[in-house]
Amino acid sequence: MAELKTKLNDANVEDFLNTIEDDQKRKDCFEILKLMKQVTKLEPKMWGASIIGFGSYHYKYASGREGDWMLTGFSPRKQNLTLYIMSGFDRYDELLKKLGKHSIGKGCLYIKRLSDVDKKVLKKLITQSVKAMSVNK
Q1: CATH level 2 (architecture), domain 8-135
Q2: Where are the domains of the chain?
Q3: 3 state SS for the chain
Q4: Statement: the pTM of the whole predicted model exceeds 0.70
Q5: What is the pLDDT along the chain (137 residues), one digit of tens a residue?
Q6: Angle of helix 119-135 relative to helix 23-40, nearest 10 degrees?
């Protein structure tokens, strides 16, 4: 069974964020960092080389594969800021309608810049997802 490459590590989150060349993306990331700290009341940790995560939970699939993953997190990808909403999006239709310009994948919320979305709605989305994941632990 293949081992997960993206693992929790001791790299410094702020040092990583300070390597982001695009000024606006770097500012957005520090704002998301602050928002996620407020929501989770947890310290950020690096997962792999480019993901900032908060908290963790243990998962186990029917196939027998298991591991640990973050409750929520984000990554400054080249195309978008990627936010990890681990509870998925099925229950958040109303919030997503109010969020602003975004796209979604299975557990990923993609935004170009923070100014494209309503930050209060984003905070609510993250809060509800973390709550859902904490209940499911």
Answers
A1: Alpha-Beta Complex (3.90)
A2: 8-135
A3: CCCCCCCEECCCHHHHHCCCCCHHHHHHHHHHHHHHHHHHCCCEEEECCCEEEECCEEEECCCCCEEEECCEEEEECCCCEEEEECCCCCCCHHHHHHHECCEECCCEEEECCHHHECHHHHHHHHHHHHHHHHHCC
A4: yes
A5: 455 667 889 999 999 999 999 999 999 999 999 999 999 999 999 999 999 999 998 888 788 888 888 999 999 999 999 999 998 999 999 999 999 999 999 999 999 999 999 999 999 999 999 999 887 65
A6: 50
